[in-house]
Amino acid sequence: MTLRLLPVACLLALGFPASADEPARTQYRSAKEIVDAAPDSDWRTPDPANLLYMDLEAGRVVIELAPDFAPEHAGNIRTLAKEHFWDGTSIYRSQDNFVVQFGDVDGEDPAKAKSLGSARTPLPAEFHRAANGLKFDRLPDSDGWAPEVGFVGGFPVGRDPEKGTAWLAHCYGTLGAGRNNADDSSIGAELYVTIGQSPRQLDDNITVVGRVLQGMELLSTIRRGPPPMGFYENAAERTPIKSIRLASDVPEAERTPIQVLRTDSRTFADATEARRNRVDDFYKRPAGHIDLCNVPVPVREPKH
Description:
By secondary structure, the protein is α+β, with helices and mostly antiparallel strands.
């Protein structure tokens, strides 16, 4: 039998000392240290045509759409934003450990509903898409909800090689299109953001249209509505939405400068490994595993 020697990097990841007089802990770099040292080439600037600005009294929430996974819904959302559909609507639901939901609270009442303008209806369900053609940055970790998991363009994704399908996972900050029982009953006018423990049981059951890049604290701290589902009984308790606009429709001077760490970069892989196998002074046993929804995708303000 041939004895193979593990490289120093693997020894460090497993928490073993690189040598008798230089323990692994002294060489460990935290995920933050790794990300802080990332070269500019490891960052990407999102397309303003795929960015939504949700402006609340408390500040701005920046959301990136995922047209590669839900092109029909993303197209409708762009139309609704351009035509100011959400301006003056509200966040009318906040369910503890689950979601906040927003849009036209009277959307299902034909006598009171806001006009959808030139948005298309109906739309096909876009729960998943063909995996072929996607640049899939796979995690080696096992997952209870998908045969394989990883990232595509910054979005957490599940993949089934046998079926040849891929879908966006329901992690913290996920933006989804609310629907009724029929799978094709969503059009992107009523949206929700996951604010609690990742409800992965919804994966491949609802059309996911994007994720929040910045401003989650403005949504996750909204006062919870009453059980069982968090819909406010009193209209005064709802959170007003000043506007939802595409970044491309906002004057450049008023845009939120933001960059996202590329999930196909060495920096992202190294930072994820640092989280998977922490060997700092606090952690006594490296986990050797990381959950898809516990892998953050860092954002930053561009350097000048």
